[in-house]
Amino acid sequence: MLSFLRTLFGTGRLVARPAKHQFRPQLSQLDDRIVPALNISASGGFLDIYGASGQERGTIEVYMGVEESIFLPGFGPIAVYQNGLRQPYTWDGQSISSIQVNGMAGVSNSWGSPDDRTDTVILNGVTVPGTVRVLLGGGNDRLTVQGRASAGQWHLDGDQGGDRVTFDRANVSGHVRVERTETVELVNAASGTTATSLASLFVAHHNHSTPVVSSVYLAPGTAVRGDLAVEAEVGYLDVAGRVLGGATLNATLPYSDWSLNNLSYANVLPGGEVTGNLTVGRSDLLAGRATASVEGRVNGNLSVFGSSAADVVLVNTGAVVGGSMTVRTAGGNDSVFVYGTVGANTGSQLTDLRTGDGNDRVEVGGSARVDTVSALLEGGDDTFVLYSGAGFASMLVGGGAGTDSFYGNRTQPNLAIGTFEVFG
After folding, report:
1. DSSP 3-state assignment of 78?
2. For residue 368, how many other CB atoms are within 10 A of its CB?
3. Cα-flanking dihedrals φ and ψ of residue 5, to 5°?
4. Nearest to residue 377, comparing CAs of 413, 315, 316, 420?
5. Least buried of 114, 167, 256, 415, by fewest C-beta within 10 Å?
């Protein structure tokens, strides 16, 4: 038995991952030509894991758990696996304070450039006082963060390709920054009882010439405990979980045409909640098409800044905006639909609409409950519809240049109507 243990631990050979980690994803059989292609070093408190350029790496896993905390000579204090086998590396004995994983580009195709091989990186229970930095490199790569994890900051970079970063059953402390990544998702898909929760999240994806897409999704039962911000030329934010701070979705500034190539789309889904303010679009530029849909709850203010494209704002039946609602659009045929509650918080809350030029349409539904409304439809042939049953404290509605239409009861108390040419 003693000779067997020396053979296993004393030579720094590869050790298979313990089988009782039942919660980890199952690994599919890899092709025989996939060989270890990692360089690992640990010195000065810095663990550096980087792929050899031009080779496939398959799945890289970094674990800090009960089993991995048992020191194995030749393997270092933090377990690093490649394709299910624990990898040996040299360690100078200093406590690890920061971790970097550099996937680099995959193998090259016949044209000499990296192809779209997928690298998978899994970080489970990683806890360090410094920075965790991951650069996935070329290809359509996957990064998953699981377990209770903590770092001074997280910097996760997809680099190139259709990359996906997933926080699955992950309770993460420290600010998280994700760059150049097509999809960021917070889910509770893995087995376990830990609900996914991030301290704060910032997502940035832009290239300033060709529009790139970045989608952020919070599944039911997940949360961002602080602020959430997304900056992308084409950005999607879907909240079915909770944002306990504010949420911002801004289009970044490319050199191409704003109105055709840029989109900020935010959707607070049924059951979703933003505790602070929700801001969609850029107030400094009024550029980039904006779409905002509230089907859940925004406890703070809702602000939407659109462009000369067709912007859309919806507060659906049963939805609640606790504070004020501000809509500013430029040209374009814009649509604003208020069917839910705006201004539920104590005190006077203003619904302030300025739709700019274009043939715009504003509807206040019969299920709507709003406080003070000021709607100026400005240029274009605009339409304002006030349905029977709508509740409001006061309402001022005005048309602008063009042939504007007002539909609804014009004799209601506290309703002031400006210039309209058509009534119905």
Report:
1. coil
2. 23
3. -65, -40
4. 420
5. 256
| DSSP 8-state symbol, 276 | S
Ramachandran area for residue 344 (φ above 0: left; ψ -120 to 50: alpha; else beta) = alpha
pLDDT exceeds cutoff 50 at 21: no
Task: Answer for the pair 424, 407: CB distance below 8 angstroms, yes or no.
Answer: yes
Residues 6+ apart with CB under 8 A from 166: 142, 143, 144, 145, 184, 185, 187
The number of CA neighbours under 13 Å toward the Cβ of 3 is 0
C-alpha 311: how far from its chain's center?
21
Contacting residues for 373 by C-beta, under 8 A, at least 6 apart: 350, 351, 353, 364, 392, 394, 395, 396, 397
Q: Are strands 85-86 and 98-102 parallel, antiparallel or unpaired?
A: unpaired
| C-beta neighbour count of 362 within 10 angstroms | 22
For the CA atoms of the chain, what is the radius of gyration? Answer: 27
Across 21-25, 100-104, 259-263, which has the greatest mean pLDDT?
100-104
- Residues facing 204 on adjacent strands: 179, 231
**Tell me, what's the pLDDT at 395?**
96
d(CA 401, CA 245): 40
pLDDT tens-digit map of 107-116: 333 333 444 4
**Average pLDDT in the chain:** 83
Q: What is the mean pLDDT of residues 279-291?
A: 75
3-state secondary structure of 371: strand
Judge contact between 329 and 309, C-beta under 8 A.
no
The Cα 156–Cα 62 span in angstroms is 15
Among 291, 369, 366, CA closest to 334: 291
d(CA 371, CA 210): 42
Chain-centroid distance, C-alpha 395 = 36
3-state helix, strand, coil in the chain (%, to 5): 5, 45, 50
Tell me the three state secondary structure of residue 4. helix
Amino acid letter for position 194? T
Q: How far is the C-alpha of 178 from the C-alpha of 159, rounded, in Å?
A: 10
Q: Which residues, including other chains, have CB under 8 Å from residue 6's CB and lie 6 or more apart?
A: none
- Per the model's pLDDT, the better-predicted residue between 104 and 144 turns out to be 144
Which residues contact residue 212 at a Cβ distance below 8 angstroms, ignoring those fewer than 6 apart? 182, 205, 206, 232, 233, 234
3-state secondary structure 203-245: EEECCCCCCCEEEEEECCCCEECCCEEEEECEEEEEECCEECC
What pTM does this model have?
A: 0.87
